[in-house]
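Quick question about two entries, pasted in order.
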Amino acid sequence: MPAESFEAAPRPETGASYAGAGVDIEAGDRAVELMKGWVRKATRPEVVGGLGGFAGLFDASALKRYERPLLASATDGVGTKVDIARRMGVYDTIGHDLVGMVVDDLVVCGAEPLFMTDYICVGKVHPERVAAIVKGIAEGCVLAGCALVGGETAEHPGLLAEDDFDVAGAGTGVVEADQVLGADRIRTGDAVIAMASSGLHSNGYSLVRHVLFERAGWELDREVAEFGRTLGEELLEPTKIYSLDCLALVRTAETHAFSHITGGGLANNLARVIPDGLRATVDRSTWTPGPVFDLVGRLGGVERLELEKTLNMGVGMMAVVPETSVDVALTALADRGVDAWVAGEITERGGNAEAVALTGDYAS
């Protein structure tokens, strides 16, 4: 086909505009104004400047107190849980999920979360809705002890429907080099402490939605006696943020490792911190998963192994501590209102054994 000069193209009577393409800059500015108050609450003394710059500033001279500071970085989203928030019209809890997914990955190595940035992508900017999302992120940062130093809201008309949105975030933390936690600290005889989750947290929602909505045909406003609330309210229960609890545990009791129980379930995530030659044996009979896990399994006919590979089954974080530290660790967590218990132990691993073994049946 022969090339044709753009000068030959007819000029339309009405000129195109960004707004005509679906991007509302004024709505974006309004969203920023609405979120400023919440962002100001999620700060730390090291934060320099305020919202509105091209980059967030953090005074790194605060790290001079470290002998050899290591920066830890993590990024994550909340997956298809955003669909529940959209359908419920509730936007101020999903930010808690985002913060929890990021900062609790940071704290696994013993890092103190310092600051986060967020990215919110929407089909159409509804200022109050965007501000509600940021409100939740800011509140989550307060619970995590970190600052929200910046973010981005992007409007993608034509790619996302007007009510569609997604969120992601990145966080940075710091840990002293000789205090990094992990597999190299774990020893035979260590105890595995489980910390209760607040529910599904932010993983496995593709399975949950498939079972509850597509297969079972349940509605979000359905009252569920076992939950004491509606299905939608249960599914939107925010992810528990453990970072300050874990840091308090490290200060109080000798701690060898943490494992954040997210996508992949308990066994796969705990295996990531178990060294070669050792094995973590976890006894299911030490806890009872919440009713939402049984509901998904029963309505979907989901086998236990499949549930355990997908959902946290009631455990959101695990700690590996020396046996001599168990009592102090459990007391420290209880003092912070964390439901925790000894769920297993570290033993020698022989032959081709898996790094993590789940034994017994869940307590009824």
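Here is the second entry:
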Amino acid sequence: METLFVNQTLSRLDLSPKPKLPLSITPQPIHFPTTTATTHLKPNKNFAIFAVQNQEKNFQETGDTLQANNFNDEVDESYGEVSKIIGSRALPGGKGMEYLIEWKDGHAPSWVPEDFIAKDVVAEYETPWWTAAKKADDKALAELLAAEEDWRDVNAVDKDGRTALLFVSGLGSEPCVKILAEAGADIDHRDNAGGLTALHMAAGYIKPGVAKLLLDLGADPEVEDDRGLTPLALAKEILKVTPKGNPMQFGRRLGLESVIRILEDSVYEYAEVEAILEKRGKGENLEYLVKWKDGSDNEWVKAKFVAEDLVKDFEAGLEYAVAEGVVAKRMGDDGKNEYLVKWADLEEETWEPEENVDPDLIKEFEQGQLQGNNGSFFKDQILDAETEQIGGNGAVKNESSVDGS
């Protein structure tokens, strides 16, 4: 096997009898990763949306070289030959790799940056991993991760800072995603060729099943790429440039719409709206300022996410108030029930048609009537209401209460 240095004029590697690079061979625990904070970077105008059009071309390795200037400081008087690589780990930020080297002369294994290891030695170790990832071979990935003699980093990166999870997500392999996630893969890792995450890959390559699985595993749908696009924004942008009338693109559009629905469900939390307060914008940009029933802060929400009946009422000019309870009931002129409502922010009670009253308040009132727990006050209100109806058509109303005694 070739020696460690790429420079073929050096036949042996200078090592210290007591390596200064610490040995750390702790297998990574199996766990489902949690959502990390959203990363915001400046948009890269040179990154084209059509980068996701050709996966095979897009996934090819390019030649960024890891700078490892400090490695020479670690060498000393003795030399050793490489036996094999027995572990790997990615550098912070996905900037490269380093490998755990087993030495032929019995030195303790030590970590060495990839640029100081012969390319054929690295290729022998890495080729099975990346072949399995780019073919979405779940069995091969599982076997490599299960190898007892190998402390392989599931978050290993290629020259573009991409991990195996990004490849299998773009290929739409749910089994591979599950295997990598269970092995501790970073669900929100961003590559160095555009800031794409696995969720961006699933969205861009139209893999709704993988998109949903990644979200279930805790992927953050609001992580942005280098252009400032979330996976949802990326999917919408691709849909926008996908022809509508072309039968060949019909399946593609359906897939994108499915991805968009899945991502929207994860981004927008659905809550009960108490009232619409204002509106702004037009067309796709139309928004309503809504007041939530749970007391959350008022929020501008896209029109398509607001219930149609609330929008209809708002546009018709109806006003909203908070009801404390129903205190009386009567039959209206149209033969339908009306309820006397006590308001929290109004001094006067008002008669309202049944459709304008909260069904829960009506139910509470009716139950109270049946159980006789509402006292003579409610009874008087009902009789007063009936007297008012009888006293119509110009007759003098009887303003006195009738208690039935």
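Reply: DSSP finds twelve helices and eleven strands in the chain. The domain at 273-315 is CATH 2.40.50.40 (OB fold (Dihydrolipoamide Acetyltransferase, E2P)). Hope that helps.
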